[in-house]
Amino acid sequence: MQRPYEFSSMTTLVCFEAAARNASFKKAAQELNVTPAAVSHQIKALEIDLKCSLFLRHHRGVELTEKGALLFIAIERGFETISEAITQIRERPETVDVTIGATTAFSSLWLTPKISAFWKIHPSITVSQVVSDVPGMTGRCDLTIHYGNPQENGVEYRKLFQDHIIALGTTRFAAEYRISRLEALLKAPLIHSSSKETGWTSWHDWFAALGFPAPKGRSFYVNNYMIALQAAQDDVGAVLGWDGLVGSLVNEGRLVKLVRESIPSPVGFHLRIHRRATAKARLFADWLATSP
């Protein structure tokens, strides 16, 4: 059976993360309680698997290559998410009133702040999140959030919002590539979120909807929207943004709208209410659907 994740060996990834974080195979070995030679062997195996160099070896240490830095950012954020989930599981009360499932991006950008606001109004209702980017991993939830229009007959849902899709980048990136019009954006580096599960609009779709050809600039591919947004904040390229999700990043000035053009999102975000949903879950669902 094919695995749902395109992973190298977890042992090699753990060794790589420790070596990258410490900028040293020796320090990574001490942390992992293995020999430096064992760490070096695991890193070499990972480089062979990925067919690229991840470190520049120096006499007094190691330095990440560009591809190594990209992998380190992704692994670091993944490990942070796992660590947070383990902490929540350890500290989570046995009784949970409402369980809601969402993707990583939707949870971070929209849902988590909403739950915080809900708790101020209903402090006695415990809401738990199941955060997953893998389809079918939210089966035990009372509520789940989806991007797209409900297709199944008899499904109860609440529409949350249907927003516009805009081109985003940093002010530094816009100045470097002199982006003020779409023609300049066609030639600039673009960040592509390549997850097949989300069905989100691509750069090719976005330009086509505006009557423009496919972009010609350098492409940077990731399969996680949060990583795509972080890469844009690091001046890697421009990224597409759903204005209903990324409002906080724009308001804080971390990303700016690069051109005035935008397109309406072809579908909206909706909240599915599963049959197991309790009265408290329905109360939370109605509040989410009507909250500003």
TrEMBL record:
Limits of the HTH lysR-type domain: 10-65
Task: List the keywords (alphabetical).
Answer: DNA-binding, Transcription, Transcription regulation
Against InterPro entries, the record matches this protein to: LysR-type_TF_proteobact-type (IPR058163), LysR_HTH_N (IPR000847), LysR_subst-bd (IPR005119), WH-like_DNA-bd_sf (IPR036388), WH_DNA-bd_sf (IPR036390)
Q: Which GO terms describe its molecular function?
A: DNA binding; DNA-binding transcription factor activity
Lyase as a keyword of this entry, yes or no, is no
Q: Which domain of life is it from?
A: Bacteria
* Pfam families (alphabetical): HTH_1 (PF00126), LysR_substrate (PF03466)
According to the record, the segments passing through the membrane are: none
Q: Which PROSITE patterns match?
A: HTH_LYSR
The similarity annotation says: Belongs to the LysR transcriptional regulatory family.
The molecule here is called LysR family transcriptional regulator
Tell me which species this is from: Rhizobium meliloti
Starting at the broadest rank, the lineage of the source organism is: Bacteria, Pseudomonadati, Pseudomonadota, Alphaproteobacteria, Hyphomicrobiales
